[in-house]
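Justification of resources, computational component.

The compute hours requested in this renewal are based largely on the per-chain cost of generating structure records like the one below. Each record pairs the submitted sequence with a full structure-token output. That output is archived, and it is also reused by downstream analysis tasks.
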Amino acid sequence: MLTLVIVIVLAALLFDFLNGFHDAANSIATVVSTRVLSLRRVIWAAFFNFVAFLVLGTRVARTLAGDGAHRSHTF
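The structure output for this chain reads:
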């Protein structure tokens, strides 16, 4: 039973890791395919998309898990 739990947790972690790659790629692919941004701006967007986790860390996840995502805090 413990082996099954470990396998499921590892599969979930792998999925989240790979999903992050897809999210990052999709955010850049959208502006490239629609030609909304110049190449220079796409490179900046890719750079900031990559390093955002260094600046934000887990703040977004903590906000959504905590009191920050309640309706009373929205406009």
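The chain has a mean pLDDT of 78. Helices lie at 2-34, 39-56, 59-65.
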